[in-house]
Every structure is written in structure tokens, then in C-alpha cells.
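Record now logged for everyone:
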Amino acid sequence: MLTAGVVKFSYRSALILTLASLVSAAGFVWPFFYAGQNLPRTQLFFAIAITIAVVLTISEISNSRMDAKSVALLGVLAALVAALRPLGAGAVGIEPMWFLLILSARVFGPSFGFLLGLISVFVSALLTGGVGPWLGYQIFAAAWIGLLAGALPGRERLRGMREIALLMLFAVLASMLFGFLMDLQFWPWALGANTQLSFLAGAPVAENLTRFITFHFLTAMAWDLPRALFTAGLILITGQSVLKALRRTYVRAAFLTPIEFIERGKAQREV
């Protein structure tokens, strides 16, 4: 029987995690509320948010809310997701990393999924030289997708093709969400100020939102639809076997179970 997840966050940690998410969310939605003349340096939002998330992770490890097995598993899965990401090279949105992130978060819970998304995208950026102003956006978009995948209903009861269908539907929605969020970081700088779809500083929220949504659907479908179909297809083909393997790992590793060392002489006397 699965529990709430591998990573046990305290209420204080959950509050800090929420704060990091809110700070990073400001880096996405600022165009709809900004009235200045010069575009802001949005990397500051994500520098603060990533720092908070890293401090939180270290704090959870030091306070033993993440045991050694949880940390090891997080590292292994983050390395696998990071290795999968370059295989599609982002070609027309085909990125095989998403299916493993979604399936892992499904088994190990929302907190684990958040950390897995955050760490794996950061590692893959270091491996492929993908460090740039877009990295903070990608990190938190992946972290939120991992969080939502782990929070899907029926994690302990739903099995078989019904679970696969749920995860496929989520994969489609998550792929669209990722494209939507990535366009938010691109749109204010993409078109200049002289088109009908350009970002207008100080314009009403409804006007900028209309311009952005039109821009998104005119430009992103060639990327979002292939990503959605590819990720859902991988879950359909491999989902049941991967979920079974991950759940077997969860049960056999006995995460967050205290490890007790018994003296050999005492153990022999008890036998």
C-alpha cells in the first residue's frame, strides 16, 4: 500500500515550497501587470525561487525527512530524466523525458515529483549547455508538472488501463501547459512593439491576455501537439510495466522506515 509519498514535508517546508512557487509564478505572469517602459530582468524571480527550493531540499535531508534511500532514488531518476531529455533534442516538441517524470511522480508522490522535475531539468541543462534566461522557466514548469502528476487522484487504488488513461490525459494537458508557460517567457521579447500580437506594457490585462493567447495558439501548436501525442503514446506503450517496476522499488526499499542496527551478540541471544 502506498502512502502519501517518499518525501515527507513538514507544514513549514510546505509553506516555503509554496512561497518559492509564488515567487516563480510572478516570473511568468508579470507581463499582464507591468506598466514600466523597460522590460524587467525576470531571471531575478527564478534566482530567488531556485535558491529557496535548494535550501528547502538541503533542510529536508538534514532533518531526516528524506532518508538515504529517498535521496539515492531521487538522484538516479533525475539522472535518467536528464539523459532522456536530449534524445528528442526538442525537435517539434518531442521530448521523451516527460513520460518518466509523470510516471515517477505518480508512484512516489507530489513532493518527490516537484523535486524530480526541478533537479532533472537543471541537471540536463548543465549536461547539454542549455543554461540561459529560459532555464528558470523550464525548471519550475517541470517541477509543477511533477507536483500535479503526484497529486492525481486514485494513487493507491486506481490500476490497469483506467490509470493509464488518466495518465495519458494528464500527459496531454501537461504538454499543453508546458508550451503555454514557455511561451509566456518568450512572448514579451518575441515580436517587438509594432504588431497586433505584441506585448504592450501598461495595457489592460484583458488586452494583453488576448494578444498572448492568440500568439500562443498561432505559434505553439506545431510543438505542443507532437509533445502531447508522443508523451501520451509512451505512457500507453510502457506505462504499466514502468509503474509496476517503480512500485516494486517503492515497496522493497521501505522508504522512510528507520534502519536499526542490532549488536551481533544481542541478536544471537534473541535467536
